[in-house]
Amino acid sequence: MLIAKNASAQSTNYDRNSPAYRLMERLEIKSGNLNNGLFLDAAPISRENWQIFIDSNYYIKKDNPELNSSNIFSRKLTKADEYWLDYLNNDNLPWSDSSRASSKKPILRHFYKTKANLLEAHTKDFHVFINPVLGFEYGKEQGLDKKIFRNTRGFEIRGQISNKIGFYTYFTENQAGFPTYIQQYIKKNGSIPDVGLWKDFKKNYYDFLNSRAYITFTPVKNIHVQFGNDKNFIGSGFRSLLLSDFAKDYLQLKITTRVWRFQYQNIFSEMANYQGNKNVPYPKKYAAMHYLSFDAAKWMNFGVFEGIVFHDNENNGRGFDFNYLNPVIFYRSAEHNIGSPDNALLGANVNFLVAKHVKLYGQLMLDEFVLNQYRNNRNWWANKYALQAGFKWIDFLGLPNVDLQSEINVIRPYTYSADTIAKAYEHFKQPLAHPMGSNLREIVNILRVNTFGPLDIQLKYIITQQGLDTGKANLGDNIFLNNRTRFRDYGNELLQGLKTTTTFAEVTASYMLRHNLFIDANMILRTQKNALTTQNTTYYGAGLRLNFTKPDYTF
């Protein structure tokens, strides 16, 4: 077995939307134990950490039945769970068992020697895996003549050197035509969600590149360093109100420290103060974030988040402010030492496991919150906060591999905005938290059915109420507006403005034909309605993808 237990070993990460990541959370809930070293509340997750978890808790049981009584997977796994565990073993070389991952019949002796990888090479001090990335989708929007499609081609490379340095590269070239509601988002903000810039392709179509790359290393035991372009997600919800992966990737130095039941992440990042004009250079902005996660008990985890967004607001070459390299959480003192010029946010994240079937989770984000103003009950504009509460119920009502998630999000007006646009909680004109901004209330319901291993069916039903600006005043939904232009100081209520209800329903069916080769079919029914207008979108499409995760346009 090629399973590395060395504390200095390096590995790349699992994407939060991958089948492997969904399996991780399902098995963690089933185990009833959060104290496992995974820290799923801070994504992405290291491949090595996941493999150590599954080796010690699943394969030991499988190969040594006498250990079942002391194993956290003492409850029987379903056939679908076993199917995705085999998928993970095939996908996670060199950490997993190579004998289980080998192909019976490689193509031309050199291609797909293992089930997951087109090409790979191994020596004592070097491992590399190379795979194509392909994504083709074609669909139709009711009442629209234009084509809706996506054509993605690219590659993915990952590996490690001397068991000390890990590396990852992802690159795709794309052409796409989007449904109306996505096209309106692009027109309004000047960027494609998840991607950023584009160039015109024919009429009303887009041509764009998408890439990520980073290296990892461990300078000392228990401290893991990652540098490059990537995304992050904090929380257990469908949305994150602290830090989400909706925006495009950004350059970052991420330092992850693990001691006992604690995991502490420092993220120092360079972002773009892009304002929608592709023809002029866009200035840089920066963010420094800390997240401390603590497994307080087998069934309870809580975390504390802090973020500072800043930029060269005086055009004096300030660049990255080294005051924020302080590795200890709570930047507020450092911010005060430099005159408190920046946008500071504080947050909390909690998780609870119940009866090996349910995860309860929640988040609180505070943005310039003043307790005395809250007690005055006058709805002061700067009492900006966001709340989340939700649950995940696996094997819902005793039905194997039928999982239900339900979530509520509430975000006060002007939350995530700042007194200059460059300090808003965004990157490349894309929110770093909720994709729809603020001044909203939302209910999310997701049902996933995976009773037959390779077939995954997902149903989403999301209702979002939001108070929108009418164009005459800044009422607090648009985080890209300077909050000095606010409509009033007091009397700011949730959903003030043009009350708009967006209903989003989607059915998606995916079938895995072979490792990471999926055929998909989906249908979207979206309605956005207010006193002035009603917009309906009905979209249905199908596609084929290889080593490609579909972007999430649920907004």
Describe this structure in words.
With 555 residues, the chain is mainly beta. The chain has one domain (128-546): Porin (Beta Barrel). Helix content is 12%, strand content 44%. It has helices at 19-31, 47-63, 79-91, 98-101, 180-189, 332-337, 371-376; strands at 13-14, 42-43, 45-46, 119-123, 126-141, 148-161, 165-177, 199-201, 205-220, 223-230, 233-234, 250-259, 262-272, 284-297, 300-311, 343-354, 358-367, 384-393, 402-411, 426-427, 430-431, 440-449, 455-468, 498-514, 517-529, 534-546. It has an 18-stranded antiparallel barrel. The radius of gyration is 23 Å and the shape is globular. Residues 1-8 have low confidence and may be disordered.
**Low-pLDDT sequence parts:** 1-8
Shape: globular
Number of strands: 26
Instruction: Label the structural class.
Output: mainly beta
CATH top-level class:
Mainly Beta
Major beta sheet summary: 18 strands, antiparallel, barrel
Averaged pLDDT, please?
90
Number of helices: 7
* Number of separate domains: 1
